[in-house]
Amino acid sequence: MRYATLVLDDGTRYRGRLSGRARPVSGEVVFNTGMVGYTESLTDPSYRGQILCLTYPLVGNYGVPPAFESPRIQAAALVVAELAEEYSHAMGEKSLPQWLDEQGIPCLSGIDTRALTKRLRVRGCMPGRIVLDEAAPALEEPGRNLVAEASCTTRIVYPGGGKTVMLVDCGAKGSIAKELHRRGVTVVRVPWDHDFLAEDYDALFISNGPGDPTACGAAIGNIRRALQGAKPVMGICLGHQLMALAAGASTYKLKFGHRGHNQPCLEEGTGRCFITSQNHGFAVDAATLPAGWDAWFTNANDGSNEGMRHRSRPFLSVQFHPEAAPGPVDCGPLFDRFVSMIP
Question: Where residue 45 sits, what CATH number does that domain have?
Answer without folding.
Answer: 3.50.30.20
